[in-house]
Amino acid sequence: MATHHPPVRTTARRCGAAACAAALALATGNAHAATLGGTLTANLTLTASCIVVGVPGSTSGINLGTITFASQPSTFTGTLSAIPTGGASGGGATQVLCSPDVSGLQISIDGGSNAGQGSGIGVGTRAMRNGTAFVPYEIYQDIGHTVAYPVGTALTGFAIPASGAAINLPIFGQINKTSNSALPSGTYTDTLVVTLTF
Predict the structure, then answer these.
(1) Count of alpha carbons within 13 Å of 175, Cβ hemisphere only?
(2) What is the pTM of this model?
(3) How far apart are CA 180 and CA 89, in angstroms?
(4) For residue range 112-150, what is the model confidence (pLDDT) as tens digits?
(5) In a 3-state reduction of DSSP, which class is residue 23?
(6) 3-state SS, one letter per residue, for 43-95
(7) Using CA of residue 144, residue 146, residue 148, residue 153, what is the dihedral sign?
(8) Quick check: helix, strand or coil at residue 14?
(9) Which domains does the chain have, with CATH numbers?
(10) Which phi-psi region, left, alpha or beta, contains residue 28 (left: φ > 0; alpha: ψ -120 to 50)?
């Protein structure tokens, strides 16, 4: 009579799917992982440039502010000084920001709307107007009022800070009224075209 033996179950047949996967992972754990390495370059190109603070990217039609001389009685005589304020850069002085590698600025200012008027009232190549009355004035490149901007001719050599900081627009207005005659009361105005080249 033949002896009946129960079927033999091997370990392979007894492991479930999860157990088999774990056993396989352990068996191949000694294999070395492959790697790749290299370099990645990032770059940015900046061009030499200048802007009027408050209006980045604009190149024309920029509000450079107003040279506002302090209010005076119509009988005043003497000198008054002022700088451009209240333009696109805010309520303070009009400022220009240039990259430090800009070698320098050239600034040209035209004669305004009333050039040469009012010579009997005072000194200046430009003039502000109120009706038929004029107040001559001058525009200088320095706070000491020693170098005037000639009408339509560029002045050069305005230094740019190596730190890349903004500078006040180097324009300084001065009225020098030499006549003792009283002028009509009211607001006297003029409009200048300023060109900055760098």
Answers:
(1) 23
(2) 0.78
(3) 38
(4) 999 999 999 999 999 999 999 999 999 999 999 999 999
(5) helix
(6) CCCCCCCEEECCCCCCCCCCCCCEECCCCCCCCCCEEEEECEECCCCCCCECE
(7) negative
(8) helix
(9) 50-197 (2.60.40.1090)
(10) alpha
